[in-house]
Structure formats: structure tokens, C-alpha cells
Design a protein that fits this description.
mainly beta; 0% helix
Length: 146
């Protein structure tokens, strides 16, 4: 399968221009920690979080995972259809393999959990995306949370 560029876009078919505000700052050097805030007011979306990664060498692999200060991504819907909904998205771990052979490839392992709270009354969804540490294999499971 050939690599392709994503067609993901926040604009609609008449190609309106959108303003996205992105602010990030390194808030600690030891350990390295960054805080960020992203907003697209026209789409009523805000993202925020504190990013800290840790890495360790294991044999011929470098494993990269969330540090203890990293709590994931927080997404808020500030208006529109999803007004009041809040999403919490966690990060999976990744490994850089093939260091000594010079044939680098990345595998993702663990899981990403996306939890929805707030918004209109009723059932809230939670998605659990499980990554198998094989190249190109992703398992997805969904569950309802009340």
C-alpha cells in the first residue's frame, strides 16, 4: 500500500479560511515538560494539555512513552452540535526499532482511551483503541459508558 496524504480538513466545501490559535511553552527543563493550548473558534474546538515524554533503551529498541506529568489531551466543544462535551484522550507508547541495522521502523503498543463527558444528557461514549506491537496492526474496541 502506497503512502498517501491525508485529506482531513476543518473547512467545508466552499473553502472558507479558518483561524487556529496555537500556544505552547516549555514549562520545565528537568524533566522536559511543555504545556499547550489550541483553539479554532469558528469550529468551537479547544485543546489543551501538558506534554511530557520519557524514553528508555531496551536492547536494540528505544521505547517512548508518556511521562508521569502527562495526563493526555483535553478537548472541549464550546458551541455547536457538541456544545459542552469534553473529551479526554490518552497516549499510547511507541518503540523505535532497528537501530543497529539502520533499518528504522516504529511500532505502537498499549492503548489510547477516548472518554466523553458533559454535553447533552444521555449515554456517553468511550473508545478504547488497542495497538498491537506489529507493523500495521491496530485493534479497536468500543464501549458505552453511562
Amino acid at each position: 500500500m502506497a503512502a498517501q496524504m491525508s485529506n482531513l480538513s476543518l473547512s467545508n466545501s466552499n473553502h472558507e479560511r479558518l483561524r487556529v490559535i496555537f500556544v505552547t511553552e516549555q514549562v520545565s527543563h528537568h524533566p522536559p515538560v511543555s504545556a499547550y493550548y489550541v483553539s479554532c473558534p469558528q469550529r468551537h474546538i479547544e485543546l489543551s494539555g501538558i506534554d511530557q515524554i520519557s524514553a528508555k533503551v531496551s536492547g536494540t529498541t528505544v521505547k517512548v512513552f508518556s511521562g508521569h506529568l502527562n495526563q493526555g489531551i483535553f478537548l472541549n466543544m464550546t458551541g455547536g452540535f457538541g456544545e459542552g462535551e469534553r473529551y479526554h484522550i490518552t497516549h499510547p507508547a511507541a518503540s523505535v526499532n532497528g537501530l543497529f541495522r539502520g533499518y528504522f521502523y516504529i511500532t505502537v503498543g498499549g492503548s489510547t482511551i477516548i472518554t466523553c463527558t458533559g454535553g447533552k444528557p444521555g449515554e456517553k461514549l468511550r473508545a478504547i483503541i488497542e495497538y498491537k506491537e506489529e507493523v500495521g496492526v491496530i485493534g479497536v474496541s468500543w464501549c458505552l459508558e453511562r
